[in-house]
Amino acid sequence: MSHFGRSGPPDIRDTFSLLVLNISFRTTADDLYPLFERYGKVVDVFIPRDRRSGDSRGFAFVRYKYADEAQKAIDRLDGRTVDGRNIMVQFAKYGPNAEPIRRGRVIEDAEKSRDRSRSRSPRPRHRDRDHRKRSRSRSRERHGRDRDRDYRRRSKSRSRSRSRSRSLSSSPDHKSRRRARDDGKRKSRSKSRSRSKSRSRSRSRSRSYHSASPARRSASPRKKSPPPKRSPTPEKHTNGKDLPPSRSVSPSPKGAGSRSPAGSDGKE
DNA sequence: GTTGAGCGTT
């Protein structure tokens, strides 16, 4: 694991957890330990990893023994470039057991109970941290329960939206539909040409790999060559029902394929 | 080979 040979948290009685964000995906606990250890006594360094592939999520937790050292580490390492990434070091807000943290220190049982009596909400102040874009490309395993609920909600919303859309536009829909059909035919030809171009572009496939790793692979460089040719499946638009293939609007022209993680590196 | 907002394990 990412620990120092011990299983689970060593001792969270008086440890100050620091959250290190924006670290490289290649950065490991062993790489962060010396950095943070220079500014104080590091109790433990943990990097959450994905259970599917096992890759780092891009952030780590560093536990210090003293607050002053943790603060110093934050002041020193926050904003620094580590492994080519500008890391952000700050106090963790939650403990390993989803327990609130006061001043970066893990609250004890007694203190926790007493503290929660007065203020049960750990973070009722600001929730607008930086909601720039919460959509991750492909990461963070989503629990089936939440995922199912989300899917249900989106499906319902879509149905409602479509229903309302039909009510609003009933007359223009016919014209739009008829026009869409005409465009569909012309678009078909255009698509055919586009496909031809795509194939031509796919022809050029020459990449020179420079071995940056000290250990090179003794395997044959040309073991298997994947077929560069794309699947010749011309998508036929059902312009007879709905979904006007107008060039103005494109619901999902690309990227509507299934994701293939294939992240079996088997590293470590 | 990829990704990039956030809060953690035996």
UniProtKB/TrEMBL annotation:
Biased composition (Basic residues): 119-142, 152-165, 186-208
Keyword Nucleus on entry: yes
One example GO MF annotation: RNA binding
GO biological process: mRNA processing; RNA splicing
Comp. bias (Basic and acidic residues): 102-118
Sorted UniProt keywords: mRNA processing, mRNA splicing, Nucleus, Phosphoprotein, RNA-binding
Domain RRM intervals: 16-94
Cellular component aspect of the GO annotation: nucleus
Annotated region described as Disordered, given as residue ranges: 102-268
Biased composition (Low complexity): 209-218
Compartments reported by the entry: Nucleus
Designated name of the protein: RRM domain-containing protein
